[in-house]
Amino acid sequence: MSAARAGAALPLIELTAIDKSFVPQRPVLRRVDFDVRPGEIHALLGENGAGKSTLMNILIGLVRANAGAIEISGRPVDLARFGPSAAARAGISMVHQHSTLVPAMSVEENLCFADPSGGLLFDRRRAASRLAELSQRYQLDVPPGARVEDLSVGQRQRAEILRALDRGARLLILDEPTAALTPGETAALFPALRRLRASGRGVVFISHKLDEVEALADRVTVLRRGAVSGTLAAGELDARELGRLMLGRDLSALERPSASGGERSSPLMRLRGLSAAGLGGGCGLHDVDLAVHRGEIVGVAGIDGNGQRELEEVLAGVRRMDSGSLEVDGKPVRPHVRTLRSLGVSHLSGDRERAGLIPGFSLTENWILKASHSDERFFSHGLLRAATASEATRVAIAHFDITPADAAADVATLSGGNAQKLAVARELSGEPRLLVAVNPTRGLDVGSTRFVHEQLLALRARAAAVLLISTELDEVLLLADRCVALSRGRVHAIPADADRAAIGAIMLGGQGA
Fold first, then answer.
1. CATH tag for 3-247 (out of 1.20.1050.10, 3.40.50.300, 3.20.20.110, 3.40.120.10)
2. Dist CA 322 CA 273 (whole Å)
3. 511: exposed, middle or buried (C-beta count within 10 Å: 0-12, 13-18, 19+)?
């Protein structure tokens, strides 16, 4: 412990000069210093691929650093023996962006599941009492007795925080905690985090939303290309400066070019009375009417689980309609992958890992993934033109600034932002007439988000149509010419003058719906 720190409260955790490489000569982290103090919310920012996840995985024991030191409450950690169990015993817990709770279990059962301090038998009353006490203390409301699969995204997140607190967490790492929350749920989360801070706990807040960081954080550390580019105190926080530290340059205002030749008289695509069964007991779609014209972006706002995936799959041609119709250029169309793509309908998946790109395939293989054997760009008499496909991929890599710039590389080696650039480039390569874009910037940094937004606006300017289905309300409000809300499988109009509170109520199926 340094003399300068002798008279001050010890940090809860302190990482010093952390180095990490998964591949020789390609460092992921370079001499990173990071600490969290008791009673502090410390935000961690950086572009996709900057090293945030690797640094946090080192802190929770999932990844071993190549060099450096870790101290917990002033005590050095043996890096060779530091793993998830040791991190948990030290009170370090992470709430991941995607829930790790068991969906079929109740909140109380998840509270006790795999708890090393629990007994052999599940004591439901004791678990319910613990849940109620924690919920009241931190004002994190979760329906008692409810199955996790029946909870909203925000409720699942609160349940995960309560589970971590129940197991003695002194440091909570929150990975993109507001990515899929409504404005109301986000507003409810922030006071809870401040109460955690007031209790003396530390919070690591990982986010790409600079306004939230400004409102919440006591300090901010920014990573760029695996190294710390700056650490700022609360009084020094400024969105423009944070963006500069993340990107190494200023980010200018987003320009909205005018659409050329947009025709509003006849929709390019129209849904009439569309209904479809829900996935896994979900709400499905009910009597959906929706139209998208040339030269416009129509935004569909909503909370995950309200029919977004069903709508996406119908428009991708992989889910049957139970009733209603889908029309393109005024003509009924049976939703089928090849039929829709032949009509110029392109689909940017909301689940890049599951339905957008295939890990284990190269960038080139992913580039031609949706091309049929009749696509003369890449096939001749049904045979792949491998050299042509590789060259097309290299051109896209250069044009969209994808790194690493290797068409033969496994797509799994790309950061989230670069993987999304590849997916966007592929969908735009055929100059679609209509792009169905689902959560196109989820989990992306400000630079990659700006890139995707510019591509959508440029497509609109070329008189194409864009249906933007997003759980990011700010994104919908920024890009869309018209907005609707998808709530419980039904589409509701959003008045042009509606404020965020009114929109949140409509998204929840309440007032205004």
1. 3.40.50.300
2. 10
3. exposed
**Amino acid identity, residue 23?**
V
Which tens digit of pLDDT belongs to each residue from 150-182?
887 788 888 999 999 988 899 999 988 887 676
- The number of beta carbons lying within 10 Å of the beta carbon of residue 382 is 8
How much is the pTM? 0.70
The full set of domain ranges for the chain reads: 3-247, 269-355+432-507
- Residue 378 pairs in a beta bridge with none
**Angle between the 446-461 and 239-247 helix axes, to the nearest 10 degrees?**
90
Which residues are CB-neighbours of 115 under 8 A, at least 6 positions away?
166, 167
- DSSP lists the bridge partners of residue 40 as 202
Residue 332 burial class via C-beta count within 10 angstroms: exposed 0-12, middle 13-18, buried 19 and up: exposed
- Determine the Cα–Cα distance for residues 317 and 41; give it in Å rounded to an integer: 45
Contact yes or no for 446/242 (Cβ under 8 A):
no
CATH number of 269-355+432-507: 3.40.50.300
Fold identical between 3-247 and 269-355+432-507? yes
What is the rounded average pLDDT of the residues 31-58?
92
Token pair for residue 378?
């890449």
